[in-house]
Amino acid sequence: MIHVVATITLKPGVRAAYLEVFRWLTPLVRAEVGCVEYQATTDVETTIAVQDPPRPDVVTVIEKWSTLDALYAHGTMPHMNEYRAKVKDYVTGVKLQVTEPAT
After folding, report:
1. Considering the chain, what is the average pLDDT of its residues?
2. What's the whole-number mean pLDDT along residues 46-56?
3. Helices 78-87 & 15-30, crossing angle to 10 degrees?
4. Cα–Cα distance between 85 and 56 in angstroms, integer?
5. Of 47, 53, 87, 89, which has the maximum CB count within 10 A?
6. Domain total of the chain
7. Are the beta carbons of 91 and 18 closer than 8 angstroms?
8. What's residue 24's pLDDT?
9. CA-to-CA distance for 40 and 61, rounded, in angstroms?
10. Segments forming the whole domain that contains residue 87
């Protein structure tokens, strides 16, 4: 199992528009071979001392893939190219962390 945490940093004030595009994308990705989970999330304010403050211009995408090859194939899908074109004016940065279970 491959886990991905994608941190998408957005221009101020465009998160709602970005999430609208992501809602279009989500069922297409979930239908891909090897996709186990694919979900956009936003920060929740809590009283947990070690949590960073909420980031209003960030969307965190939580992904699970059956294999690394499935993740690689995901990046080449036509709908991913269309997604990138649709959000290019919203996104200022993307960071990925790809992990696997340690135990």
Report:
1. 98
2. 96
3. 180
4. 22
5. 87
6. 1
7. yes
8. 98
9. 4
10. 2-99
Rounded Cα gap, residues 55 and 35, in angstroms: 27
Q: Select from 48, 58, 56 the least CA-distant residue to 5.
A: 58
Using 50, 70 and 90 to split pLDDT, how confident is the model at 95?
A: very high
Report the alpha-carbon distance of residue 37 to residue 66 in Å, rounded. Answer: 10
Round to whole Å and give the CA distance between 84 and 87: 5
The helix/strand/coil state of 43 is coil
pLDDT tens-digit readout, 16-48: 999 999 999 999 999 999 999 999 999 999 999
**Whether 89 contacts 10, CB under 8 Å:** no
CATH of the domain at 89: 3.30.70.100
Rounded CA-CA distance 9/21 in Å is 15
How many CB atoms sit inside 10 A of residue 14's CB? 15
Beta-bridge partner residues of 37: 64
